[in-house]
User: What shape does this take?
Amino acid sequence: MELLSCIGPTCGDTVDWSAVEQFYGTPFPADYRAFVAEFGSGSIEQVVGIQIPAVTSDEWRGNTVSRLSEEALADETVNRWGPADRGQYRLEELLIWGWTAGADTLCWITTDPDPDRWPVAVYSRGSLEWSVYRCGMAEFLLKLLTGEWPQWPISDDSLQGMADPRFLHDTDEKAGWASGNDPWE
Assistant: This one.
């Protein structure tokens, strides 16, 4: 993704995709694997966060790809879909790959056996409903960064019109804050 620049010394994560597939029971989309190899786990301007998968239950933490929690599955307010998508999807079919500063949840709908055809679903904290975007994760992010969505798909609009969006790896962000410096400056 040429539009996005990685700042900091860490760019990309090495992932054992065979182990990931075994752990999650499914392969992951090619565009996501390429994004993880180039950028890794981190965020775009502290507005959109990208999570990487765990390989074992010991690695499972808050910033890894996961299904919705039992609490979210049981919460009726989480099972609200936009008018065009009502009744088409189940919350159990979602796999979380990211988040936004506006407390939105970014997922794939994993119903298709081909992960390269998984659409993106966004749970907007602003509208309290899911919207489905019929594209992969990389295309979703590209359209977000270029402002190509006719209606802004996330609750935080601070990326709109940003000329040179930056990505910072989680490792570098944590190190910056731990040293008392703002890693984004």
Summary: The longest strand covers residues 94-100.
